[in-house]
Specification:
The chain is an all-alpha fold and 265 residues long. It contains 15 helices and no strands. Helix 8 packs antiparallel against helix 9 and helix 13 crosses helix 14.
Length: 265
């Protein structure tokens, strides 16, 4: 609620003219109805209260309608992101930000996009802004943690991704947490997180996560080397990651993993 009230004036300015006018009118009617309720005879108050409730519901609907552009933009950006069109995502979300329609979700997606483009400094800046808006939400926490991991700040990454897990992030994030712990030389914490990740169907259905989880567990003495089939299916993602972050300590660590797995093939 506090976040909503703080950001509502900016969101309101991005609405179309009709939505703004109807909202102001409904708000004035609500004010009149509340005053009437306070000074009306007891016999009339129940009728006025019905009107007050109806106006509150109407105002909520107007807010949802006025914010429809932000939701539409975010949904379109998500589709582009899943399709791998990161340049398109960046253009779309930067335009929305310029128009004052950036929610913490849009900023998180933009920060994740910068990371996918290898622009880690801009990614960290944008995700920091998203966290400022929603400091305890798992979405920006996870995105910020992944960017710290890509930059090679393994301690910061493990702390932030753990907070994302504690805030309700999906179970697949346990794989990222285990990876961060492993690269931060915390074998016991890494083993616990990775064992939990390996128990998640969602993790094992994603070839790149399943591969890294299995390989790190193997290095920690918790299982065999992943099969050739698992390596072939999951390795391309990590080859791309090693190239994308070649200028960071994380890229160096991933490159060593890739070299080892390529040798296994």
């Amino acid at each position: 609620m506090v976040w909503f009230m703080r950001n509502f004036p900016r969101d309101f300015r991005s609405w179309d003219g009709l939505s703004r006018s109807v909202f102001v009118l409904a708000l004035l009617l609500l004010l009149v109805a509340v005053v009437a309720f306070l000074f009306a005879p007891d016999a009339v108050r129940p009728l006025i209260l019905v009107g007050v409730v109806a106006l509150v519901i109407t105002i909520q609907g107007i807010v949802l309608f006025g914010n429809r552009g932000m939701k539409t933009t975010f949904a379109a950006a998500q589709r582009l992101y899943l399709a791998g069109d990161f340049e398109g995502v960046r253009e779309l979300l930067l335009r929305a930000d310029h128009e004052g329609r950036s929610s913490f979700r849009s900023l998180t997606l933009l920060g994740n996009t910068y990371r996918q483009l290898g622009d880690l400094d801009d990614s960290e800046v944008v995700l920091s802004e998203a966290l400022h808006k929603a400091p305890n939400h798992h979405f920006p926490l996870y995105g910020f943690g992944r960017t710290l991991l890509a930059k090679g700040d393994f301690a910061g990454a493990s702390t932030t991704i753990r907070r994302a897990v504690e805030a309700g992030a999906p179970p697949v994030v346990l794989a990222d947490l285990g990876e961060a712990y492993f690269f931060n030389d915390e074998p016991d914490a890494a083993r616990n997180a990775l064992v939990s990740a390996a128990d998640q169907d969602a993790v094992m259905k994603m070839p790149h996560r399943a591969l890294m989880t299995g390989y790190l567990l193997h290095l920690l003495g918790q299982g065999a080397m992943p099969s050739s089939a698992a390596i072939r299916d999951g390795l391309p993602y990590w080859q791309v990651s090693a190239a994308r972050y070649a200028h960071t300590p994380y890229g160096d660590r991933v490159s060593l993993v890739v070299e080892t797995l390529e040798h296994q093939l």
